[in-house]
Specification:
- It is a single chain.
- By secondary structure, the protein is an alpha+beta fold.
- It is built from 7 helices and 6 strands, in the order H-H-H-H-E-E-H-E-E-H-E-E-H.
- The strands form 2 sheets. A 4-stranded antiparallel beta sheet has the order 1-2-6-5. A two-stranded antiparallel ribbon has the order 3-4.
- Helix 2 crosses helix 3 and helix 3 crosses helix 6.
- The longest helix has 60 residues.
- The chain is globular and about 75 Å long.
- The N and C termini lie far apart (79 Å).
Length: 230
């Protein structure tokens, strides 16, 4: 027993989910302990979030470096299709359900663990992560710089919305829009990249009437805007 690192109680305590610890603290009325555990849970999830963020960005970087932009485009589309299409299939599709669909989409964005700035006008809903929890933070953290830099797509093309020197992770936004157009004729959300990626905030825009999505959002990714429904 003298060689053991932990008691049985300590081992059992390590086994428990952080959310269960949080619930117990709330039930016990210990608000200070609950706050401490909530922050711990946030940091646990942020660490896992960034691990997968870095992993996929490193993988996409290797695809681009070894096989070029054309192969990267194909891999990006199929990789994004594997998670974006099931999400879109699970969201309500009736026009009258659009407010609920937008709320569910915003809820998903909270998984990036950053505050949101949401505005609405007569035509659209605009959502910004402040800061972007994935692509934006990769840039601000210097992940595209130095000896082990992630890949930057040099040539402007549909994959990059026509912009040169585009961070490889951020190109998944193009794939989301293209898949939506292939599957449903119109994108659910279009992205307006920040002028200075990693410093300013990108906008995710949902048009209340998809017929009003400007032609430029189709042109920039080489897709045709469908004729207006009669």
């Amino acid at each position: 027993m003298a060689d053991r690192f932990f008691t049985e109680d300590e081992l059992r305590d390590m086994e428990r989910r952080t959310v269960d610890r949080l619930t117990d603290a709330i039930d016990a009325g210990d608000s200070e302990k609950a706050k401490k555990i909530a922050k711990r849970m946030y940091n646990e999830f942020l660490g896992m979030h960034d691990l997968y963020r870095n992993w996929i960005t490193a993988t996409l970087s290797e695809v681009a470096r070894r096989h070029g932009d054309e192969e990267l485009d194909e891999v990006m589309l199929e990789g994004v299709r594997a998670w974006w299409k099931p999400i879109m299939d699970s969201l309500p599709s009736a026009p009258e359900d659009l407010p609920r669909k937008i709320k569910m989409f915003a809820s998903g964005l909270h998984g990036h663990l950053q505050p949101l700035d949401i505005t609405e006008d007569d035509e659209k809903i605009e959502i910004k992560m402040c800061p972007c929890g994935s692509g934006g933070r990769l840039i601000s953290e210097g992940k595209y710089e130095g000896e082990n830099a992630f890949h930057t797509i040099k040539e402007g093309q549909p994959l990059t919305y026509g912009r040169p020197d585009y961070p490889v992770y951020c190109a998944h936004e193009y794939a989301m829009e293209k898949i939506d157009i292939q599957e449903r004729g119109r994108p659910f959300v279009v992205v307006e990249p920040a002028a200075k990626l990693g410093r300013d905030y990108c906008s995710l825009i949902v048009y209340k009437d998809p017929e009003n999505i400007p032609l430029k959002y189709y042109d920039r990714i080489g897709m045709k805007k469908p004729d207006k429904a009669s």
